[in-house]
Amino acid sequence: MKEEPIYVAFSTQKGGAGKTTLTVLAASYLHYELGYNVAIIDCDFPQHSIHSMRKRDFKMLEDDEFYKGMAYEQFTRLEGRKAYPIVESDTSRAIADAERIVEDYDMDFDIIFFDLPGTMNNRDLILTLAHMDFLIAPIAASRVVMESTLDYMISVRDNIIATGKSNIKAMYLLWNLVDGREKTELYEVYEGVIKELDFPLLKTFLPNAVRFRREQNIEHKPLFLSTLFPPDKSLLKGSNVDTLADELLEVLNLTGHE
């Protein structure tokens, strides 16, 4: 009998908070670098950014001998391990799509990531959120972002978790787009507010850096954001993506599970 995968969403109602980028980085690092079996259900209708990224990645692979060689080398080293599936979906069928790929693929998925829209007045989104095991909300040191995200967390806690009818085991906040290498006093002020609301905060924070937007390109610079490759080791240092992956595995109780 197949093991049940853990459903995880980087979720917030604030656009531009980095949830799509975080989803791809976490999935690619865990799948290609650490050997966990992951999938992504892309419900962010109508743009479907992650599904579109996968199409761009495959197109570049077809057209560019450099990336074709990289892919051959990687998938040979990984002994035939394939690219993780990305399903184009929406909130009305997200859970059904997740259940389908679990049945269709000859593997046990460890984690299925969901890239969700942020509009809380969508009944299908609320039902999908209720099926998540863990929610991680990226935040930035901005009053607009903080207020929007904390309102979102409170709404999920009071209107979904409090009913006792959800699968949500925990929600976490994650500092993203941090200016500079270290957090300033402003972050301490915001963390005081977060503590008062009793929301757990992941220890890892991610910097605001150009590398987080570096996809495949005709100049063949080291890759950071890709659905087919993990972040290049030369760019990983200082990004905290590896640290985030390790902390996620602890939170999800998957350490040593690969």
Q: Summed up, what is this model?
A:
By secondary structure, the chain is of the alpha/beta class. The chain has helices at 19-33, 49-63, 65-77, 94-104, 123-131, 143-159, 185-196, 233-236, 241-251, and strands spanning 6-10, 38-42, 86-88, 111-115, 134-139, 170-178, 201-207. The protein has a single domain (6-219), classed as 3-Layer(aba) Sandwich (Rossmann fold).
Architecture in CATH? 3-Layer(aba) Sandwich
Tell me the CATH superfamily. P-loop containing nucleotide triphosphate hydrolases
Mean pLDDT: 89
State the order of secondary-structure elements, H for helix, E for strand: EHEHHEHEHEHEHEHH
Q: Indicate the structural class.
A: alpha/beta
Largest pleated sheet: 7 strands, parallel
Overall number of domains: 1
Q: Which CATH first-tier class would you pick?
A: Alpha Beta
InterPro entries: DNA_Partitioning_ATPase, MipZ, P-loop_NTPase
Pfam families: MipZ
Protein name: ParA family protein
Chain-wise SSE layout:
Layout: E1 6-10, H1 19-33, E2 38-42, H2 49-63, H3 65-77, E3 86-88, H4 94-104, E4 111-115, H5 123-131, E5 134-139, H6 143-159, E6 170-178, H7 185-196, E7 201-207, H8 233-236, H9 241-251
Helix pairs in contact: 1-9, 2-3
What does this structure look like?
By secondary structure, the chain is of the alpha/beta class. It has 9 helices and 7 strands. The protein has a 7-stranded parallel beta sheet with strand order 3-2-4-1-5-6-7, sandwiched between helices. Helix 6 links the parallel strand 5 (134-139) and strand 6. Helix 1 crosses helix 9 and helix 2 crosses helix 3 (65-77). The longest helix has 17 residues, at 143-159. The radius of gyration is 18 Å and the shape is globular. The mean pLDDT is 89. It comes from Dysgonomonas termitidis. This is ParA family protein. InterPro entries: DNA_Partitioning_ATPase, MipZ, P-loop_NTPase.
